[in-house]
Structure to design on (1980 residues):
């Protein structure tokens, strides 16, 4: 079954315990700060039935239609399709989340291996859960990152309490009881269920922490403490001020706390087999890089676009140093794309369990290049946009009819570009750059280019050239005042 | 005369026309968003009379006590004192602004040269203005950056209108009339007067733009459109959420528009002598680098401190890659300091006009290193702090007594560090990093270190080593499956 | 026809005028400094008939067997095969040169376009030349780079003489007469013929420089001035001292001078159509990137191997900073490979002329990453190998039986690795790094790691942490001596 | 006493056992490969008595004149003088070596501390040695780096033998017996004596390795295995081909082996006090950074000069990207200088022993910046010089009168620059860059600038800009073919 968008939205009105900026929220669908994220995810359900998408997003098996993501990838084609699915939905603006599907795919690998080596039966639980996913079609997410406490200590060696990593505190014939907290869990307020996995390898003493399970998000004992969204505004003001994150950003990240939550055995996918925690964490990572690099194709192409647009609007697109910066951005965007695509086209095959996973080397290269280059991206966008990304006016300034004529007149750029377009491009740049000081700081007291120019003017070129001439025995250096007292080289031959 | 802090605050209740986020503000001293900046600047007036500071900040001449910054620097000692003055006030938290004093110093140089070469008398106007500064002690700022329009066109060649750079539109025996707009002008809402300078060199056709003058900020025809501050909150909430900018940040940056503003001749320091616009812009830069690098000593030392603190609170201070990152931050902070200090200790002397200015090469190196390294600073702080800099809870979450126990338990770090301290350190890191996606983006789907580890694991080391062994004729490479079909090098000798 | 290796070697005994280090060489096949290059290229002829290679390297058409490289690529498959052909021959150690085939492919594109637009008939000359290549099987090279004179002036605007770029000085019914010089032309001493192309775009005034042609290398008026090889030694000593370049390096690069050389019309592929010089230079570049990136796959994998081997031999392969450096090298090698392969798999198609060329963006990314990262590669290899890459002993030291016991004892590394193996690996590293000071200079007075450690120790961490605590309002900073006189922030509230 | 240059040269004709490239050298003053280094060091003795230098280089105490370097620095002025002394001698071309004086200074600190804490009497031995230095004036060097074996194991844990670090193998009432080898020891063939120090910290089990001593270089049991010089040529050919290293380079680096060498107690400065090995190694480093950074001022200014000269000779000095590269080189040179000078001006004081040492943070920053930037320096010099640095002709080519006219004509650069000057500048660049492939590799198949240009041309700017416009809601993006099927954002509002 594939639910409708309306069914999905209705399903969020459940018993979840959720806080936002110090307030408990009784119904998130009524809270404006959540509506962006909810709408964005609801659009996925629209696409599942959209003529341009349904063949890509869903499959039909035994007359049952379900989401392609619930299927374990077995070939390069499956991985390429997974990638296209993510990218296409993202391009349309649907809030596709990979956390859940990636945790599911990882759990499938871990369970298969654990069952084969240790004779456990976790694969049955996973199959049962897949059946549930296919029939009930819940929105799921995956919880990986623990709160961790002292990062220098293992889970079982933590000093203040033992709950810095999610762990099993009890078990009986019906299921297990878990305690702890997961943090930075994306797409949680908009999810119905979640799969919880360890985020690291374990040793035997950590075996209580070796637990993988699925649970409804409104189960007894679960609390969601959301992180603030990117901006304070909502509605049209948010969209104008923050063209990218104001539209779909909303509240999305959560700390999820587990106060002795009960999980029935048919939702437990690992419990105590500490040797396999590493597999689960690693495999989640492998699949989640595929998802992550899709996001990054979107965001790096957007960054290249913002920069190119601002260069044009500012009238500086012909300057060599601007073209060099734009070139770097285009190269960066292309690199993320080429390497991530190659990871799907040339996957790693696990013959023992009949699966294909994104090429480990390639997918990590793609993700690494992105993360390593992110601040360089921002630096270049800030450099090209100018200090205005820090000081640009707001929606309310623009709506004030006394201010607007001044803004319109003085914030104009190249002739032919309406000031409002330039303003929107600047707000988009600002949305990428945030309120951080970085952009401001590279411009205050003069741009990088201004400093280079001043250094070029200030540098003692005549002296430097004379130094080289003296060593190379090229005449003319003795006229240079700084060198006039120096002898020829060597100034004497004794041997 | 040196005014009291109270006199200073009172003086801001004048006729200024000022807008903030779409609203016209009748009295900025009553508007909470402005109070941080005002208080911060008012503290300078406290220091002028503080026993630990007054010998540094003020001088007495002919029984008149006035601010040291009104004096033109003539020696290395003057520059070193100027630097110490800025740094010490900043360290105390007083909102010292260099824009005004630096514009004044630059105007002194420009006027001296112009008068000497062209026989003008601008130095007299400047001396008159210095006298006014000494007796009335207004808070001043300096306006440099024009709105610029198409950056690829000169001022007089702009297409949409001719006011993208401030220019003289009329003049008579009493003074001149100016039109245009200046943007990103710091410390403007907290100032009484401002000195306006060109921001670039001019040719003869741009001579209407070659104008330097001083004016009260509430003169007829001036409007101030402020840029939004760093955060929405005010008061204690702002200070908790944004420990650095929430306290003193407030609203500070302005676009200043000039609707045919009248300037009397005794406040005009350049008017039409286009050959000297370059001197003014350049000299402002030279002095303003000195100020800017003082700020940067403060901020880079703070960044090194944030990172070292977070490393300790997270329990990761012993990891080699963390120590390497901390080392870079310490080196960066030291470099800014060493080079900026050397610029004062080894100044450039202008014998024609008897002045000393910060060493052009050194001061630009200092500023360049800072700006060029700013995003690297942020990257390292984000890397060490962790994803929590993006998702950390707010003041209101912390004040909610249902949420607090969870936050207190789960956001604890190393034993012995109260969670609230860790929270405050994280909020400080977030304040540095802003709401930008950069920090989040380097952590989502795994940290940089995680990717490197995965690549190290995935790389075909045996193959690579076998390749090297084959070339170096070291036995053992033939066992490597990827190379097993390759011949020795050279596989045959024909000659 | 495909010649034998012996026929090829014999063909080099022609009338060529060639100089090496100040001597005119009557028969290069007798000169030891040339034998490495000659043997290496002769091995290609062995491979043309080798069972493992012939299906890859040659094609048969109308019962005529000829080199696959003489065929113009039309599909992604053709490009992938071209790439495999180059890489496989290089891996075997055969001295495949791409200059000639790439110039040929470029000439095919240029001629097709010029003929179509201007009604010329250059394609006929090219077809005639291809026929000659298929039947006579000469070894060819391509000459692109001109000597250029003042790089700031166009060819026809050069001041000292007009021959800084190869140009047509005369023409008649039989052919044209050319003058000028080409420089850095690889694979020339080992070639029989060469194709000459412009290296830049032209304007109408440069039309005499718009010339493409083929010629035997021993034509009247051609002189070859070779560049020195990488080392002085020859034979076994060269191979021991320089395991990579000592074997096949030899003399390879030439300046080729043309003293009014006659070229018949059936070898002229462009003459005066200045609008197409750009096409020729650009297309040569596009094809030659494909070749170049094959070389770079070989050399970056070798660099990763050298570094991994030296890390192991030195016993440092477990240190995190070493693993980080190795990871960079592996990532770099993989990136060159992924991007260059993607350029062939996803080519640009030119439908007007029915051709496929390597994807312009991807192939340039691959080449750029290589060149941009080359010095970083060398830095990391030098860093891991140690100062010994600068000071390692020679073949003659090793052969001296008084020295050898000392070398054997003291240059041992990790137990289990024969000293000679370590020596050979070091010599290979040295061969990559050359005699340049770079490697020595990063180690003299202590390694980079030593400096970082010292800075970490020297940095004022307590002060920095106290600075951050003060801003974050975390108690404890007042105990820090450097801060003890500072007040709380803000030290007073006035408003 | 200060010896004459002749006395110094005569003193090298002693019993030293020395090998060069497989040959035992009976008298190094007769071997041309050694004469450059010897002459260069002999020039120091000329300067000691030179009117422009003697006040800087020597001091007189109790009517005894001796080298300033034998005095332990106690103040900032001493350190500044030490720095000036090194830099001035280097600028004149005298082969000043810091290894010996720096080892001496370090030994003074170590002995003072060890004596104070453990009641030993090493300071007496050092004073005795200083007396010997003042009266006999030998040329000394310092040996630090051990051969090390497996770098992952401590000295006493080495597996193959115990001599990878120099150690005491016997001791009696007269002295001690040492065994082991030191490597990369500069200035050894030209020295008379050497001071041997550990290169690392020790634990108690390594106490036999905790030994510092001085010895004549021709003592029984010492063998010197020299490393090859930078080039094969000698005399005028060497100087023309390698303008910097060909003149003074020669053979300089040694592996020094100790076959049970006897050291009398009055030359033993530490023996078994393992706690102080770290002090010795560390202090040597601190002093040697001062020396090293002097060298680096010389070499970075030279690199900036070479690049500026080549830019001019090639006619490219006006291109923005060239100016940007030159600016980096000038900034780099200035940074090394500023930071190293500041390390002397603001030293660390050790009040316990009354000494001043270069500021630990600053001196390491200076050295680190140099080493870290060395490959960047080379990359920029190679980039600006061009591929010709790899393929430039030799002295013998230039001397061949058939080749010279071609070289003279075709290797000319900008008009007004004699070709020979350009050749000499290129040879100087090549001397800096070495025969390594780095320079060649960044130019083969096109320069970095060419790749950037191609990528700029190839990048899909219209698509990128349309992507940004769509997000920013700026009209016009739907016309872009790649985006034409995408909906507005959000494509639907469900909530």
């Amino acid at each position: 079954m594939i639910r409708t968008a309306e069914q999905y939205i209705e399903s969020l009105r459940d018993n979840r315990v959720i806080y936002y900026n110090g307030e408990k929220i009784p119904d998130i669908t009524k809270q404006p700060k959540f509506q962006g994220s909810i709408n964005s995810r609801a659009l996925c359900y629209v696409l599942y039935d959209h003529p341009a998408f349904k063949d890509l997003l869903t499959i039909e098996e035994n007359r049952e239609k379900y989401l392609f993501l619930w299927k374990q990838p077995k070939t390069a084609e499956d991985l390429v399709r997974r990638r296209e699915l993510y990218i296409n939905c993202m391009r349309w603006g649907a809030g596709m989340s990979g956390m859940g599907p990636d945790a599911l795919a990882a759990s499938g690998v871990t369970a298969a291996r654990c069952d084969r080596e240790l004779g456990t039966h976790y694969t049955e639980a996973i199959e049962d859960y897949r059946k549930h996913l296919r029939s009930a079609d819940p929105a799921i997410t995956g919880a990986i990152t623990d709160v961790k406490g002292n990062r220098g200590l293992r889970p079982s060696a933590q000093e203040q309490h033992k709950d810095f990593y999610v762990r099993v505190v009890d078990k009986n014939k019906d299921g297990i009881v878990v305690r702890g907290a997961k943090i930075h869990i994306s797409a949680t307020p908009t999810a119905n269920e979640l799969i919880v996995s360890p985020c690291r390898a374990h040793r035997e003493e950590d075996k209580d922490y070796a637990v993988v399970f699925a649970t409804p998000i409104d189960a007894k004992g679960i609390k969601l403490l959301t992180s603030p969204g990117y901006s304070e505004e909502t509605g049209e003001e948010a969209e104008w001020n923050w063209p990218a994150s104001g539209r779909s950003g909303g509240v999305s990240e959560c700390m999820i706390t587990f106060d002795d939550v009960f999980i029935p055995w048919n939702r437990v996918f690992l419990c105590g087999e500490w040797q396999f925690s590493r597999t689960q964490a690693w495999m989640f990572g492998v699949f989640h890089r595929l998802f992550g690099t899709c996001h990054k194709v979107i965001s790096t192409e957007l960054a290249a676009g913002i920069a190119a647009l601002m260069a044009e609007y500012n009238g500086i697109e012909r300057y060599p140093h601007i073209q060099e910066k734009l070139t770097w951005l285009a190269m960066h965007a292309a690199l993320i794309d080429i390497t991530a695509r190659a990871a799907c086209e040339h996957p790693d095959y696990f013959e023992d369990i009949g699966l294909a996973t994104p090429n480990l080397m390639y997918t990590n290269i793609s993700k690494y290049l992105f993360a390593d280059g992110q601040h360089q991206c921002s630096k270049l966008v800030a450099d090209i946009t100018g200090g205005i990304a820090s000081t640009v006016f707001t929606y309310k300034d623009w709506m004030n009819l006394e201010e607007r004529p001044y803004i319109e007149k003085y914030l104009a750029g190249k002739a032919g570009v309406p000031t409002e377009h330039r303003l929107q491009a600047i707000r988009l740049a600002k949305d990428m750059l945030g309120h951080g000081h970085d952009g401001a700081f590279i411009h205050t007291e003069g741009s990088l280019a201004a400093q280079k120019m001043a250094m070029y003017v200030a540098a003692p070129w005549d002296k430097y050239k004379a130094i080289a001439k003296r060593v190379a025995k090229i005449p003319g250096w003795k006229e240079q005042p700084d060198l006039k007292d120096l002898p020829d080289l060597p100034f004497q031959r004794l041997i």
Observations:
- Chain B touches chain D through twelve residues (CB under 8 Å).
- The mean pLDDT of chain B is 92.
- Chain B has 18 helices and 14 strands.
- Residues 33 and 196 of chain B are 26 Å apart (CA to CA).
